[in-house]
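Show me any protein, fold above all:
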Amino acid sequence: VVAACRAGVCGCCKTKVVSGEYTVSSTMTLTDAEIAEGYVLACSCHPQGDLVLA
């Protein structure tokens, strides 16, 4: 994933998690609706196993 900030502030790495468990350390640039739909910032997403992304 190409992202300049690597800190969850630019939003360039926004992606949707279809399945899998994860924790996040930043949702700064995501709306509540995006979070509810499963969007994460890849640079701030910490997989707990395999993830399926869209």
Notes: The radius of gyration is 10 Å. The helical segments are 32-36. The domain at 14-53 is CATH 3.10.20.30 (Ubiquitin-like (UB roll)). DSSP finds one helix and five strands in the chain.
